Amino acid sequence: MSDIDVPGQGKFCVSDKPDLPLLVVFGGIAVRPSQMDGVKRKKDDDKPVQSDVYMWTYMNPIKNRFHIFVSHPPRSVNGPTAYDALMKAVQDQQVAPSQQILYLFSGGYLPGMDLLGDKTYANKFSAIFLVDIWMGNMATEDFYARFVNTNADRVNYIFTQGGAANHDARDKLVRRLGPQKATKVDPQNGDVGYMTHMRTNTVAVGMLP
C-alpha cells in the first residue's frame, strides 16, 4: 500500500491488490474540528480542516478494499482534469481496478457536475454516491434531478434534513430513488455544528459495494 501525490489534484492511495475497485472522492468545504466532534477547543486548535484531510478519516478504514483517490478541496479542482490526472497515476502504478465508484460529499457536488455532465466520464462509474451534496440553487437542483432521474440504478443518496439547502431538490432525489437507495441520517443527542452532516460519510462508507 502506498500514497501517491497527484500533482495539483489530490492524493491516491494504491492498495496491494491491483484489481480492487477504485473509489474517486470529492469532498466539501473546510470544517473546524469542534464542528465535527463537538469538543470545545482553544481558537488556535480549532482552525478549519480542509476536505482533503478530513475525508481520510472516513476512507482510512477501507484502504484494504479499494484504491482511493481523495481530491483537493472542491473549488480548487476541476472534475475532468482531476480524473484525467488520476487515470495517468493509475496507469503509472500499473493497477487495473475492477470497477470505478464516484463519491461526492457536500461541496463535492461542484466537480461532480463537470464529471457527470459529460457522458464520457459519467459512464466510467458503475456506482455513484451522493453524500449530503449541496443543491442550493436551481442550476444544481436541475442538474442532479435530471441525472438521478435517468441513472437511478447507479445512484445512492445519503442525506440529512437540511444538508442540500434545498428541500425540493432533496425530495426529488428521494422520491426517484425510493427508500432502498435514499437513506436519511438523523441528528443524535448532542450533535452540534456539522456533526450530523459529517456522519453521512460514516453511513455512506458502510454502504459501499
Question: Would you write up a description of this structure?
Answer:
It is a single chain. By secondary structure, the chain is α/β, with parallel strands linked by helices. It has a single domain, classed as Rossmann fold, CATH 3.40.50. It is 37% helix and 19% strand. It contains eight helices and eight strands; from the N terminus they run E-E-E-H-H-E-H-E-H-H-E-H-E-H-E-H. The protein has helices at residues 33-37, 51-59, 79-92, 109-116, 119-122, 138-151, 167-177, 195-207, and strands at 2-6, 10-14, 22-26, 67-71, 100-105, 127-131, 155-159, 182-184. The protein has an eight-stranded mixed sheet with strand order 1-2-4-3-5-6-7-8, sandwiched between helices. The longest helix is centred in the middle third of the chain and has 14 residues, at 79-92. The radius of gyration is 16 Å and the shape is globular. The model has no long low-confidence stretch (mean pLDDT 97).
